[in-house]
């Protein structure tokens, strides 16, 4: 039977550890604070931000929330970023994407103080990740790749010398997880596939691990999976369920693949909870670095 990589259970264990670390900071008179900047009323973004603040309450981190209307322009959003940069109660924060049409998200992300970049997506922090092939990294790491590697490590899945096929070149994971997988302490070989890759199915069939992040339900089919491969499902699609009469969340990996693999992440319940847990971990890491 394949191993189900239970992100909910592992995230809960991480939260238990974070509570202890937050309490240790509190004993020294320090309180980590996570800020969020939400622009507009995208239902998915509203739900995601609410989940982040619920997580904060769960581990004892202060919540700082700034909400702007959908019509906010670059100047108003930039001012909110500067407000969070300057707020001593805010240890780290995120700008929830997507931003309104016409607002340059990269320009806004570039305004974040790198030391408060809870998502680990500021150009300075990504540059530090590029530079550090060896040793410890004392800058925030991208949450989703960090969550994937933490989940695999929890279940004792050794990536040393393994061939990892990453599907999708988005900045959230596709372009960033390769940087972490190819560090010497992980030592995997990575193939990044995207819309310009010829015969993606053949690339998947060669892989020991598939990290699927294309947002296309059932993209990874049983005929694409090498027996015994590990399947990491990051993609999220909303698919109409005729029988239930409502939308359901579906991942990139067809569940029919599970019987072929050695381990898989369910979707939902796999990588998503780990991403949220890593956001909290980044904030606590930041608070501890500042205290040192």
Description of the structure:
The protein has 292 residues and is of the alpha/beta class. It has two domains: 28-113, Leucine Dehydrogenase, chain A, domain 1 (Rossmann fold, 3-Layer(aba) Sandwich); 143-273, NAD(P)-binding Rossmann-like Domain (Rossmann fold). 37% of the residues lie in helices and 17% in strands. It has helices at residues 7-26, 43-59, 74-86, 105-109, 123-131, 143-154, 177-181, 200-205, 271-291, and strands at residues 3-4, 33-39, 62-68, 92-95, 163-167, 189-193, 209-212, 230-233, 237-241, 246-250, 263-264. Strands 1-11-8-7-5-6 form a six-stranded parallel beta sheet. A hairpin with a 4-residue loop joins strand 9 and strand 10 (246-250). Helix 6 crosses helix 9.
CATH architecture type of the largest domain: 3-Layer(aba) Sandwich
Tell me the helix content: 25-40%
Question: What's the CATH class of the largest domain, please?
Answer: Alpha Beta
Q: What average pLDDT do the residues reach?
A: 96
Largest sheet: 6 strands, parallel
Largest beta sheet: strand ordering? 1-11-8-7-5-6
Q: Can you tell me the CATH topology of the largest domain?
A: Rossmann fold
CATH superfamily of the largest domain: NAD(P)-binding Rossmann-like Domain
Sheet-strand content, in percent, reads 15-25%
Any key phrases for this structure?
292 residues, alpha/beta, Rossmann fold, 2 domains, three-stranded parallel sheet, 11 strands, 17% strand, globular
Give the SSE layout.
Layout: E1 3-4, H1 7-26, E2 33-39, H2 43-59, E3 62-68, H3 74-86, E4 92-95, H4 105-109, H5 123-131, H6 143-154, E5 163-167, H7 177-181, E6 189-193, H8 200-205, E7 209-212, E8 230-233, E9 237-241, E10 246-250, E11 263-264, H9 271-291
Parallel strand pairs: 1-11, 2-3, 2-4, 5-6, 5-7, 7-8, 8-11
Antiparallel strand pairs: 9-10
Helix pairs in contact: 1-9, 2-9, 6-9
């Amino acid at each position: 039977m394949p191993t189900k990589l239970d992100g909910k259970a592992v995230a809960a264990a991480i939260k238990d550890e974070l509570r202890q670390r937050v309490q240790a900071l509190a004993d020294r008179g320090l309180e980590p604070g996570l800020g969020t900047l939400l622009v507009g009323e995208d239902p998915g973004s509203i739900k995601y931000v609410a989940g982040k603040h619920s997580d904060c309450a769960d581990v004892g981190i202060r919540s700082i929330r700034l909400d702007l209307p959908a019509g906010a322009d670059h100047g108003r959003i930039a001012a909110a970023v500067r407000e969070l940069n300057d707020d001593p109660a805010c240890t780290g924060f995120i700008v929830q994407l997507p931003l309104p049409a016409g607002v340059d998200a990269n320009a806004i992300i570039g305004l974040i103080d790198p030391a408060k970049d809870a998502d680990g997506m500021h150009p300075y922090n990504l540059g530090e990740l590029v530079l550090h092939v060896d040793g410890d990294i004392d800058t925030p790491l991208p949450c989703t790749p960090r969550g994937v590697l933490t989940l695999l490590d929890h279940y004792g899945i050794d990536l040393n010398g393994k061939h990892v096929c990453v599907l999708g070149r988005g900045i959230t994971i596709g372009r960033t997880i390769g940087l972490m997988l190819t560090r010497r302490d992980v030592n995997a070989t990575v193939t990044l596939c995207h819309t310009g890759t010829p015969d993606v199915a053949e690339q998947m069939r060669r892989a020991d691990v598939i990290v699927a992040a294309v947002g296309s339900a059932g993209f990874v089919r049983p005929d694409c999976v090498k027996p015994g491969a590990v399947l990491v499902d990051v993609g999220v699609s909303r698919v109409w369920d005729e029988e239930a009469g409502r939308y359901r969340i579906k991942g990139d990996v067809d569940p029919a693949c599970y019987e072929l693999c050695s381990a898989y992440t369910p979707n939902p319940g796999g990588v998503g909870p780990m991403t949220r847990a890593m956001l909290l971990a980044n904030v606590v890491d930041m608070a501890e670095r500042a205290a040192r």
